[in-house]
UniProtKB/TrEMBL annotation:
The entry's DNA-binding region: 130-225
Protein name (record): Sensory transduction protein RegX3
PTM sites of type 4-aspartylphosphate: 53
Start and end residues of each OmpR/PhoB-type domain: 130-225
Gene source species: Streptomyces cellulosae
PANTHER family in alphabetical order: REGULATOR OF RPOS, SENSORY TRANSDUCTION PROTEIN REGX3
SMART domains: REC (SM00448), Trans_reg_C (SM00862)
Amino acid sequence: MRLLLVEDDNHVAAALSAVLARHGFDVTHARSGEEALQALVPEGAGFGVVLLDLGLPDQDGYEVCGKIRKRTGTPVIMVTARSDVRSRIHGLNLGADDYVVKPYDTGELLARIHAVSRRTVQEDTPGGGEGALRLGPVHIELPTRQVSVDGSVIQLTRKEFDLLALLAQRPGVVFRREQIISEVWRTSWEGTGRTLEVHVASLRAKLRMPALIETVRGVGYRLVAPDA
């Protein structure tokens, strides 16, 4: 995957570029907002993800994010020391796909990069092709966004499908509530927790499989793969 790293600190950029390269990324380093915007011409220039630092020398990172979003749908992950909730919400409202606060764990950053790129591939796939998940009687077609149980199609809302697909791609793995909200609703946890609970309850009812999605008290949820 080609990745655009927007970071004005050359030492930080060099260290991070080395880590990303070891994990198979082709990294292009932009040192300013203008350099980043030029690198994304035309139409994203083939980049899979943009890692955008907010403390840039020529433009505010939020402004750069807004400009990127007007030109391309390339996923943007903001990387910044600003940890307050309002800053995160502001970034997400401008079109950022995720928000990572410094100092961060490299493993978490890599997981978030893969998450946003995987989600974008799913959304951009118009239909057909690979991308089916089978969990016992539950069949999930990612490209067509269709879910069936024992051959009967279940009508789900967009967010219900996104939630189910996220959990189903890693059965047995516990997803934190904050992580689910970030990936499915693309916003922060604040004020959205009740919405998540409602969607989980609705999925259990529609699929008629209350044990399919297990609540992990104090942490989040995981999908328990049923027997075939």
